[in-house]
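Record format v2
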Amino acid sequence: MKKRVLSGIRATGRLHLGNYLGAVLGMVELQESGAYEAYYMVADLHTLTTPFEPGELQKQIREVVLDYLAAGIDPSKSTLFIQSQVPAHLDLAFLFSTTETVARMQHLPTFKEKVKEHPQDVTMALLNYPILMAADILAYKADLVPVGIDQEPHLEVAREVARKMNEKYNTRFPEPQRFATKGEYIPSLTGEGKMSKSVEGSFILLTDSLETVKERLAKVPTDSGKGEEVPTKGGVAVLMSLVEIFEGADKKKAYEKKYLGEGLRYSELKEELSKAIFKVIKPIQDKRRELEKNPAFVNKVLTEGSAKANELTQATLQEVKEGMGLL
Ligand code: TRP
């Protein structure tokens, strides 16, 4: 039997470069390897764990679906679905929540960060975020999870749930591992933290025009372009790591040499970098435009995807219920 892969992206609107390099590229890589059975979803239920706009949700879900398909998720090779269309995720999340304590969940760095961001909205749903994610993964008995490094604490919880369920209730869950992509950590354009949809001025969207990419890079804070040491923090460091990702390590070295020598002209660097980034996102945009014209195709992909996901996850739910004495 082929090993399984599962991953998801929250429905917070259009994807940015961080999502693409940190997660989607890895998903496509695993899909293309042919060695796995791949399940990819829009984590719309996870979107409800922080403040959200009900009237916007359908649109946001659709954006992620289109970005997935445009970025190379191929429905003839991978199963694509929407989390809330597969009810076993919620059933399992409740059953799994019996294995973890409130204290353990409160101590997760991901939880603490969200509490800082939304101190007025620390809901039970937020506290349960990692349990629902464990359910997403274990429902498919996935072995590999392509996600960014910031998700490691959640994977740790998923492994813990797997172990405890296996010990207590005789289930057979594998312990899922993270699949690391080359875009491990895409820094924020502000020079602080990681690229994030919720931080204005931090991201480049996959749907940005060349002009917009240039405008966004223009705002990255820089310095005089000359010095004794190349900064390892802030805007200059961000530009250097984007250069490395999109133009290669040699190009980065050349810029660093200029910085330490005659001086670096950021206008030139930003112009070249904009073009290199746009070269990567342009084909995704072309594909997306095609897909927008074909909603019937997209709907069919999702209907078939959730049917397949439901079949598999109902079997897992049955096993868990039997193990726990509910059946
Ligand atoms: N927590 C993930 C993120 O923010 C999204 C997610 C939800 C996910 N469920 C998942 C990722 C299951 C991988 C597997 O990026």
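The mean pLDDT is 95.
The longest strand covers residues 3-10.
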